[in-house]
Automatic annotation (TrEMBL):
Native species: Luethyella okanaganae
SUPFAM superfamilies: PRTase-like
Pfam families linked: Pribosyltran
Protein name in the entry: ComF family protein
PANTHER family: DNA UTILIZATION PROTEIN YHGH
Family listed: Belongs to the ComF/GntX family.
Domain called Phosphoribosyltransferase: residue spans: 175-226
InterPro entries: ComF/GntX_DNA_util-trans, PRTase-like, PRTase_dom
């Protein structure tokens, strides 16, 4: 694989001579990410928790990581999917500890990956589901198990408890999956996958919806965590970027 990666890098550098590309993080003329920023995106799995749910992350949401994720989600830099997908796969692997097969099989021994659905507004703006793209780029198959049941209020400016209350009851298992005997999620195990975790309210709501339909949740895997701070320090602009 090293040889293929080297050829891909050489091809990108050659392309940059004709059509300059800037680093999505620092803006330096280079490939998708310059060497310095790429080094900051080396996956470093670590375990955290929010609202009683174990969550494996590979980055802190800061510096080059934060800029790369924003560029991928909000600036159309889908060329970052390979690097960020590698990070998300590392988080999933750490969460499962290598002890469970991945896939969409209905057997009790399989663990399924479930993502948080994007809002209609976000889907229209981006034209793709960021976490779904990253998982597929990493060779993993996400399940579109959940859907929004009701509209929620904007999370901007809300504290931790207010965010939890605002999200409560907004996700459900898709009715076709829930009602089909063959596709019942009773007895099936799930790992929730997302890009960023702040308070954990979104992941908690996804876990509630899955468990209410009879499934079990092992925990979550995310790219990056925003370290918890006091409610008054949540910046409205940063919180908006994390919203779907």
């Amino acid at each position: 694989m090293g040889g293929l990666d080297g050829l891909a890098r050489a091809a990108t550098e050659a392309f940059c001579v004709v059509v300059p590309i800037v680093c999505a993080s620092c803006g330096r003329p280079d490939g998708s990410l310059c060497a310095a920023c790429l080094a900051e995106l080396e996956p470093r799995p670590h375990l955290t928790a929010r609202l009683g749910i174990p969550i494996w992350c590979v980055y802190d949401y800061d510096g080059a990581v934060r800029r790369a994720i924003i560029a991928f989600k909000d600036a159309g830099r889908t060329d970052l999917a390979r690097v960020l997908g590698r990070g998300l796969r590392a988080a999933v692997s750490a969460a499962l500890g290598g002890g469970f097969p991945l896939g969409l099989a209905s057997g009790a021994s399989a663990v399924e990956l479930v993502t948080i659905p994007s809002s209609r507004t976000s889907w229209r703006a981006r034209g793709y589901h960021p976490v779904g793209v990253l998982l597929r780029r990493a060779g993993l198959r996400p399940s579109a198990l959940l859907r929004h049941s009701i509209a929620r209020a904007d999370q901007v400016g809300l504290g931790r408890e207010a965010r939890r209350v605002n999200l409560e009851g907004t996700l459900v298992v898709r009715s076709g999956i829930r009602r089909s005997r063959r596709a019942s999620i009773a007895g099936r195990a799930f790992l929730i996958v997302d890009d960023i975790v702040t308070t954990g309210a979104t992941i908690q709501e996804a876990a509630r919806a899955i468990e209410a339909a009879g499934g079990s949740v092992l925990g979550a895997a995310v790219l990056a965590e925003t370290r918890l701070r006091s409610d008054r320090n949540f910046g409205a602009r940063e919180t908006r970027r994390n919203n779907r």
